[in-house]
Amino acid sequence: MPSYKAPVDDTLFLLKDVFDFDRYGNLPRFAEAPIDVVEAVLSEAGKFAEKVLQPLNRSGDEEGCTRDSSGNVATPEGFKEAYKAYVEGGWVGLAGDPAYGGQGLPHFLAVALSEYVIAANLSFAMYPGLTNGAAAALWIHGDDALKRTYLPKMTTGEWTGTMNLTEPHCGTDLGLIKTKAVRQGDGSFAITGQKIFISAGEHDMAENIIHLVIARIEGAPAGTKGISLFLAPKFLVNADGSLGARNAVVCGSIEHKMGIHGNSTAVLNYDGAKAWLIGEENRGLNAMFVMMNAARLGVAVQGLGLSEVAYQNAAAYAKDRLQGRSLTGAKEPGKPADPIIVHPDVRRMLLEIRAFNEAARALMVWVALSADEALESPDPAAKRAADDRIGLLTPIIKGVFTDVGFANAVKAQQVLGGHGYIAQSGMEQFVRDARITMIYEGANGVQALDLVGRKLPKDGGRAVTAFFGEVSAFLAENKGDAALAPYLAPVKAALGQLQQATMWLMQNGMRNPDNAGAASHDYMHLFGLTALAFMWARIAKAVLARQAKGKSNEALDSKLALAKFFNARMLPEASAHLARLSSGAETLMALPAAAF
Ligand SMILES: Cc1cc2nc3c(=O)[nH]c(=O)nc-3n(C[C@H](O)[C@H](O)[C@H](O)COP(=O)(O)OP(=O)(O)OC[C@H]3O[C@@H](n4cnc5c(N)ncnc54)[C@H](O)[C@@H]3O)c2cc1C
Known about the structure:
The chain is of the alpha+beta class. Among the domains are: 138 residues, Acyl-CoA dehydrogenase/oxidase, N-terminal domain (Butyryl-Coa Dehydrogenase, subunit A, domain 1); 124 residues, Butyryl-CoA Dehydrogenase, subunit A, domain 2 (Beta Barrel); 129 residues. Helices cover 56% and strands 11% of the residues. It contains 19 helices and 11 strands. The strands form 3 sheets. The chain has a 5-stranded mixed β-barrel with strand order 4-5-11-7-6. A two-stranded antiparallel ribbon has the order 1-2. It has a two-stranded antiparallel sheet with strand order 8-9. A hairpin with a 5-residue loop joins strand 4 and strand 5. The two termini are 44 Å apart. It binds flavin-adenine dinucleotide.
C-alpha cells in the first residue's frame, strides 16, 4: 500500500530561505500570517492529507462513483465524511474573503495546502479545488445580490462549485458551443443544452452544487464573442437562504474513465434551468478566465503532487527491494542481494523525479507568492510585474508540470518493476490519475499555443522581457560568488538558448504561423527547463548561505547534489528543444492529411 508524507519542511525552507518571506510583509493578508502561523497551518494541512485523505485514495479508486436511476451520484465510502471534516476545519475557505466567511489568509498558503491534498488524494482534491475556482470567478465578476446569496456557502465549501464549458462537439474550440440562454421576465435566464465531462458535476458531499456555465444568449454573435457566463444552482435558493425547488439540471450519466475514479465526471442536461448572468453579456469567457487560470495553476500543482507521492513510494521501494549486486562490489554482503538503490539506472529514475519535484515546488511557491502580490501589493509596479509573471508562467507550469508529472509517475512505476504494474502497489493508480492532468483545463498542446501566440507577444513582450531581466539580474548580482558559480553557468547557458528560441519565434512565427505552432511544445519545455534551472540556482544560493552559518542539514545539503544532477543530466535537453523548434514547420506539414 502506498504512503505519503507531506513535504512541509521543504515548503517552509522555500518560503523562508529562498523567497525571503519577510519581503511580503507589506501585503495586508500577510499581517494575519506570520511565519509561525504559516508553519502551524502547513503542518496541520499535512497531517490532514496524510491521515484522512491518503487512506481513502486507493479505496476511492476501487469503488469509484455510482449514479442511480434518478441521476443522484454517490461518492466512494468515506469521501462525504472527509469532506465534512475538511469544510469544518476551514480548509476550503483558507484564502477566502472574510466578508463571505473566508479566513483571509494569503493565497500561497492555499496553493501549498493543495499540493498536499492532491498528492494524498487527487479525486478528493478536485471537489474543493473547483469550488475555490468558481467562488473566485463569482467574487470578481458577480453582482452583489449573487455574491450575497451564493458566496458565503461556496467560500466555506458547504456548497461546491463546478465549471461547465465542454459540450459533445466542442472542448478546445469553445466558440462552437450551442447551449442556449433565454431571457426571462424576472432578470433570470433559462439554460438549455448539454454539458459533458463536468468534474464534480453531481455528488453527495454537499447539499447544493453551484454550476458556472457558459451559454449563448438568443441573438448573440457567433463564436467566442457571443458567450456569456451564468450561475445555475442545483437547488434554487429562497430569499431567506434556505434551499428551494430542484433546478432543471440533471446528471444524465457519469463517465467510466482511466483514472480519478473518486471524482464524478458528469454529463449535465440543462432543460430550461434557471440561471443568472455573471458579469457582462457576451463577455463570459473573460469572466470564466478567472476560473480557468486558477484551475490551470491548480492542475499544474496536480502534476507536481502526483510526481511527489510517486517518488516517495518508489524511493522507499528502491531501498528495500533486493536484486543483483552493485557493479562496484556488494554493498550489503550479509544479504542475498543488494537493494536496487545501488544501481545507477534506478538512481537515474529516482533523481530525475526528485530533481524535478524540488525545483518545481520552488516555481510553484514563487508563482503563488506572485498571486498574492498581484492582488494586494500597494506598489503598482510590483503588482503589474507579479501579474505579468503569473500570466506568462501559467501555461508553462500547467503544460510542463503535467507532462513531466505523468512521465515521472511512469518512471516511479518502473522502479517497482512488475510490482508497479500490479494494482496493489498503488503505482499504476498514480499513472492513471496523472494522465488526465495533461488533457483537462486546456490540453497541453493548447497551453503551448497560448504561450507562444498570446503570452509572448502580449503588451509588446513585456512579461517575457521582465522574466529575462529577473534571471539576468540574479546572475549579475551573484557573479562574484565562487561557491555559487557552478550553479549559475548552466542557467546562463539555458537563458541564452531560450532567448535565441524567442528571437527565432519572433522572426519566423509571424512569417508563417505554422512555425509558431510547430515550435510551441519545444518552446514551452525549453522555457520550463530554464525556469527550473533558475530555481535550482536560487535554492543553491539559500543552501550555501545556510551552510556558511553552520545551519544546514542533510536534507538541505542533498539539494546541492540534486542541483548538480539537474544541470548535468536534465538541462542538456534544452539544446534538443532549441534544435527541434528552430527546424521550423516544414517537416511537420510535409505530408498531406490523406497520407496519415
Ligand atoms: C476527466 C475529465 C474531466 C473534465 N472536467 C471538465 C470540467 O470540469 N469542465 C469542463 O468544462 N470540461 C472538463 N473536461 C473537458 C476537458 O477540458 C476537454 O476534454 C479538453 O479541454 C480538451 O477538449 P476535447 O476533449 O474536446 O479535445 P479537442 O478539443 O477535440 O482536442 C483534441 C486534440 O487536438 C488538440 N487541439 C485542438 N485544437 C487545437 C488547436 N487549435 N491547435 C493545436 N492543437 C489543438 C488538443 O490539444 C488535443 O490534443 C474534462 C475532461 C475529462 C476527460
